[in-house]
Each structure stands twice: as structure tokens, then as C-alpha cells.
UniProtKB/TrEMBL annotation:
The chain crosses the membrane at residues 69-90, 96-117. It comes from the Bacteria. InterPro entries: ATPase_put (IPR032820). Residues 26-46 are annotated as: Disordered. It comes from Rubrivirga litoralis. Keywords: Membrane, Transmembrane, Transmembrane helix. This is AtpZ/AtpI family protein.
Amino acid sequence: MATPPNDPYADKPDRWERDDRAWKAKWADKEPEDEGYAAPPSDAYRPAAATPGTVHDAYGEGMRGAGPYLGLGAQIGGSMALFVGLGVLADRWLGTSPWGVVAGAALGMVGVVFLVLRIAREASK
């Protein structure tokens, strides 16, 4: 893209266009077979058309695979809220502020770690 020297508002050459031209020049004489790539499929290949049944089956399979992980955030948040809440109640009842909240947060974190480890162990099977 040549720019006239007198045009103060001319765009500078685009770096991406320059890189694309350099890449095409470098690989113009190469054939895909030279690099060990397979030839593209013929025009006769057509993927099967999606039908409502195949889409539904694929969606169901994906949801079954993702199921154990969909509620993980709610479980983590809920367990932390439960244990910290129990710590707040213990502080009010025993008058040991802030140690009940600290203990509740620590127990909540231990519970979260065990939850994540259990999910990871099940996922590795």
C-alpha cells in the first residue's frame, strides 16, 4: 500500500498486511504434501445434516458430562457462607469475636478443599 509523500493524513502500512504478504511469499512454492499434510477431503464429502434428534442427543450428552461441575460454584459459596455464619453465631453466643468467624472460615476452606479434591478424583476416573 503505497502512500503519497505529501498526504499528511495517510495511513501507515498495516503490519498485518505486510506479515501476510511475507508469509505467502515464503510458502508460495510449497505444497501441503511436501510438509507431510494430508490432502483436503474431496468435494464429495458432506457432513451429515443435523436433525433435532442428533442435536438433542448431543446436548444431553454434554449436560451429563458437565453435570458434576455445574453446581460447583454454588456448593463452594454455600459451604463458605454456612461455616462463616456458624462462626458469627458462635461469636455472638460465646462472646469470642473474631475467633468464631476465623474458625468458621478455616473450616469452610477445609471443606472446599475436600470438595474440590473429590470432584477432581471423580473426573480423573
